[in-house]
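so my prof wants the structure for this chain in the tokens format not the other one, which i didnt know existed until like an hour ago. anyway here's the sequence
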Amino acid sequence: MTIANTAVLIAAVMPVITMGLAKAATAGKKRSQGGYDNNDPRAWAAKQEGWKARAAAAQNNGFEALPLFVFGVLAAQAAGLDQARTDQLALAFIGLRVVYTALYLANIAPLRSLVWAGALAANIAMFAPTLSNLF
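here's what i got, hopefully its the right format
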């Protein structure tokens, strides 16, 4: 398995870990006191405030970013982009997503948006060989 393929797995697990942080913060609390409600997790997430609410939003964004990343890696590999280059772009994406999540949790929106754009650029760069074949 390539580094880029491993990065796909990491990217798929990252949103789960992000929300896991918010869930862990309520460990030991009863549901009636705001503890995690496995019977109605979406309603529980909707009631969160502060960094826990931002963790839920970061989780959603992580899942939203995942398809483009997966297809970016697959497109780069199918188009014959140098595997080392694909691995570098995949690792850049993962690193930027870690920073993005930290900035989201810390409520630093302007910088978070710049980091999000960097991760998007890494994805687009993986499509570059495929796009150049269209013209």
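also thought this was worth mentioning. Helices lie at 3-25, 41-46, 50-79, 83-105, 109-132.
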